[in-house]
Design brief:
The chain is α/β, with parallel strands linked by helices. About 40% of the residues lie in helices and about 20% in strands. The chain folds into three domains: about 5-145, Hypothetical protein VC1899 like domain (Restriction endonuclease-like) (Rossmann fold), CATH 3.40.50.10770; about 160-165 and about 255-370, Trna Endonuclease, Chain: A, domain 1 (3-Layer(aba) Sandwich), CATH 3.40.1350.10; about 175-245, Arc Repressor Mutant, subunit A (Orthogonal Bundle). The strands form three sheets. The chain has a seven-stranded mixed beta sheet with strand order 3-2-1-4-5-6-7, sandwiched between helices. The protein has a six-stranded mixed beta sheet with strand order 8-12-13-14-15-16, with helices on both faces. Strands 9-11-10 form a three-stranded antiparallel beta sheet, with helices on one face.
């Protein structure tokens, strides 16, 4: 792409990522957002992320009430396009027509052809900037965005994560064992959790199989128990802290999912236990969040009896507000996913992964990464 064309004009729709990906890939001197009253908030979040994090000059600044009076008026679109051409000169411009309405895109495309301004379309599924002009080749999208950056572009703020804790070797060392030995492993973890309450107190676990002794010793070796003694068919245990209690009660599945995402090599960034505040000041916790090619992959992890349709519907309610409509959602359960739950997940464009798929989770993620995860 001609480096003299240092002003990207981006039509703003409800999704910020086409604007962000093109700007991050091409690093223009100026990004000019063309938005309507309905998409003003989208551009504002995008502007703040790109200008504050990467120093990209975003215009118009300060934001007027709108730059296109009527997003469904081709004449208003032409007025906006001509104003930008007059301001910067056609030779500096590059049009990104991925967002906005079809009417506005047609108005800008017509003037782009007239003034020989290159036109791009962001194909995030195939990780390309498609050149709709005839002179230049398509541009592969090679930028790597963190989970935090994508959330910021959607107007959400990370309050804190538990990545340093639940992603540490102390918590991830045994998760493959638990995933491969379901449901026996969750039976022991549940018994240990019940006996270990409150943290720091002594409790008694009934030993039903010799493998449970081995698992308890492994917990002790990883400092997930602070005391362990065996007495016949029972074990006396002490769980050292509340975080470990939560691990035994189910966050081990989050640690497992996090570790598999890391090992898969698919993702630009992976975070666990992410507390976020949306643009509407609503707070939610996301179990595991990964970023890939400007998209978020959201994982809801359920290890116990709460892995039903109620938990699924709650996940459905919060996921679009975090990564937009292009986020991919996964419902990961340590129990088998029944036909009814699987059907409900499919209807909501959520990938449901149950007990049998946990041991091959990495292979499933690699497979899904090659498929169109979400309908456009």
């Amino acid at each position: 792409m001609d480096r003299k064309r240092d002003v990207i004009v981006s039509l703003i729709g409800r999704e910020p990522m086409p604007t962000v990906l093109a700007a991050m890939q091409l690093r223009p001197a100026v990004l000019y957002g063309v938005y309507s009253e309905q998409t003003r908030d989208v551009y504002q979040a995008t502007q703040e992320m790109l200008s504050q994090r990467y120093g990209i000059v975003c215009q118009p600044d300060p934001l007027p009430s709108f730059t296109v009076a009527d997003a469904f008026s081709i004449s208003d679109g032409r007025v906006a396009a001509r104003r930008i051409i007059d301001q910067y000169g056609a030779e500096r411009l590059l049009f990104n027509l991925t967002g906005g309405t079809k009417v506005t895109a047609l108005a800008f495309y017509g003037l782009a052809v007239q003034h020989q301004i290159p036109v791009l379309y962001v194909d995030s599924s195939n990780e390309n900037l498609l050149n709709l002009s005839q002179n230049d080749a398509d541009i592969p999208i090679t930028v790597k965005l963190t989970v935090e950056e994508i959330l910021l572009a959607h107007g959400s703020q990370i309050l804190y994560t538990q990545t340093d804790l639940l992603g540490s070797p102390r918590y991830t060392a045994l998760v493959n064992e638990w995933a491969c030995k379901l449901p026996q492993s969750t039976s022991l973890l549940t018994k240990t959790y019940n006996a270990g309450q409150p943290a720091g107190s002594k409790g008694q676990v009934k030993i039903d199989h010799k493998r449970e002794k081995r698992w308890l010793r492994q917990l002790m070796d990883q400092d997930l128990l602070s005391e362990l003694t065996f007495a016949g068919e029972h074990a006396l245990i002490v769980v050292p802290d509340p975080d470990t209690l939560r691990y035994l009660n189910g966050t081990w599945l989050e640690s497992y999912t996090y570790q598999i995402c890391q090992e898969s090599g698919l993702f630009d960034d992976v975070q666990i236990g992410v507390q976020v505040r949306s643009v509407h000041q609503v707070e939610n916790e996301l179990d595991v969040v990964a970023s890939r090619s400007g998209r978020l992959w959201l994982f809801e992890c359920k290890s116990g009896g709460d892995a039903g349709k109620g938990a699924l519907e709650q996940f459905v309610a919060i996921s679009p507000h975090q990564g937009g409509h292009f986020a991919q959602s996964f419902f990961v359960s340590a129990k088998n996913v029944g036909e009814s739950l699987s059907r409900r997940a499919d209807e909501r464009q959520i990938v449901a992964l149950g007990q049998e798929e946990l041991i091959v989770l990495k292979d499933r993620l690699v497979q899904l990464a090659q498929e169109p995860l979400l309908k456009p």
